[in-house]
Amino acid sequence: MKTFIELIGATPLIQIEEFPSKIFAKLEGINPGGSIKDRTALAMIEAAEKQGTLKKGDTLIEVTSGNTGIAMAMIAAAKGYNLKVITTSNTAAGKVKIIEKFGGEVIFDDRLRQDIIPEIKEKIANGEKLVYLNQYENENNVIAHYEGTAKEIIEQMEEPIDFFVAGIGTGGTITGIAQRLKEK
After folding, report:
1. What percentage of residues in the chain have a pLDDT greater than 90?
2. Cα→Cα distances 63→41, 98, 147, 171, Å
3. What is the second-level CATH architecture of the domain 57-132?
4. Catalytic residue among 2, 22, 26, 37
5. Quick one: angle between helices 67-79 and 37-51, nearest 10?
6. pTM value?
7. Res 55: pLDDT
8. Quick one: average pLDDT of 4-32?
9. Is 22 annotated in the active site?
10. In CATH, what number does 5-36+139-183 get?
11. Residue predicted with more confidence, 30 or 20
12. What are the domain boundaries of the chain?
């Protein structure tokens, strides 16, 4: 039997029949945490583990609008990490509840993330025991989609890809996928 972490990725690609053109959708919502951000969180956490910057019992901290927070809370709980999620007060209550159910501490802060991030880095520099993976600057955010999502799309498509459409948050998904699709 697989663990839920082993179920992250390998999502199906389906054709949407209702359109006259061939349109396909990658079903990232079936990841255990419900979004493509499961890939991002797992890649960042596993890279930090390999680098030795993240060890069992450590406290992760992340600024997120929700989906990365859910994914990190889920994975942190399974791997024995504490988690603090900084998000805005208008984050969906359902997302907050899920993060908390996984044991994550939710901190509401309505400042812009560019005002919060330097403060986190300063706390760490001053010795506060936090591990900040920083999805906005972490190369593993892009690598997760270059090595995972895009590779799967290419393997699942039997015909050439003319266009690719994705929502943009941190930019990791679109950057990683676009880079690999351009190479193909």
Report:
1. 88
2. 12, 16, 24, 15
3. 3-Layer(aba) Sandwich (3.40)
4. 37
5. 40
6. 0.94
7. 94
8. 93
9. no
10. 3.40.50.1100
11. 30
12. 5-36+139-183, 57-132
